[in-house]
Amino acid sequence: MTIKLTGRIDSSNAAEIETKINEQIGNSTGEITLDAGELEYISSAGLRVILRLKKANSSTKVINCNSEVYEIFDMTGFTEMMDVSKAYRKLSIDGCEVIGEGTNGIVYRTDPDTIVKVYKNPDSLDEIHNERELARKAFVMGIPTAIPYDVVQVGDLYGSVFELLNAKSFAQLINDGVSVEELTKQSVDILKTMHSTFLKDGELPSKKREGVKWAKFDAEYLPEEIGTKLIKLFEEIPETNNIVHGDFHIENIMQQNGENLLIDMDTLSMGHPVFELAGIYAAYIGFSCVDKENASKFFGIKQEQANDIWKYTVKYYFDGKDEAFIENACKMVELICYSRLFRWMIRRGENATEEQKQLEEISRAYLIENVPKTEKLYF
Q1: φ and ψ at residue 59, rounded to 5 degrees
Q2: 29 pLDDT above the threshold of 80
Q3: Which of 263, 250, 256 has the alpha carbon at shortest distance from 146?
Q4: How far apart are CA 188 and CA 15, in angstroms?
Q5: Does residue 105 surpass a pLDDT of 90?
Q6: How far apart are CA 132 and CA 149, in angstroms?
Q7: What CA–CA distances, in Å, run from 304 to 170, 263, 292, 300, 365?
Q8: What distance in Å separates the CA atoms of residue 346 and residue 227, rounded to the nearest whole number?
Q9: Are 242 and 269 spatial neighbours (Cβ–Cβ below 8 Å)?
């Protein structure tokens, strides 16, 4: 039940308002939401009304507070005892430059200082707050991360705002003529920083657990012996606590005054680095095996440049390893990539395009041919 609070609530009308609220609630035992969007002021008498509501119904929360009203709740300790949230600033993206797009959102530059990631899901507030906490965790752990400082409403959607003065994505820098090899080398430095950072058990979602789910899903659509071995290969990957970004590509790395910062932290998890590399391979190579325009559509670069990014990622990530090791590691990465792509394409069902159906068949054929030849999926 949502109840609107309006005007002023003080000692002159608190008792009357409390009576009206209780009449609205009646015998309801569900969640009570107090919408303070039109509330101008609340005194201690009004706060006591809300405190009694909270005691009667522990799920009571207050939303859409303006800055002044929120400060009253904050100063009096209410924000520590119940859910109290500010009204979201409204922001227009009309005419704004799109600087990146991913599965979950589109990133716009709203002015030289600011970018906003607008989430495609209209019910994304929990996701936004979760990403914010993940970004803070990564920042504290020493990962070069841009932390969103505000949540805004964009039409019917919500977005996270980042202060990134004149920052450009690596994709934009490539189009400006910056060396693909040099930028990839810098991106690998970030990868190595992340993958050499270890968390405590359970601090982030397990990438291995997610991978085993992919394999079990795929197994239902593969010959029995192939599916059984695929599950076994995933289950044998060690459960490690390395930080894994999960969506690491040139649209999610921003450069600001020579400093490189990661954005899009909602996929942050922990697990063996092989999962990260499989995601990178999928972004630059896997999706393009049918759609030759994939790199252009999603990154604004040529496919040859996407191929080079993968080539240089392998070169610098495995620097110092012999050729046999690197070749074997790349085969593991490819198999994990096509396991994931196979699942993605199958799940599209009747909505799959012809290209997606082709990618499904390519992924199936890859798994059938290579799973029997694979001994393990980790290095």
Answers
A1: -85, 0
A2: no
A3: 263
A4: 63
A5: no
A6: 9
A7: 16, 25, 10, 12, 25
A8: 15
A9: no
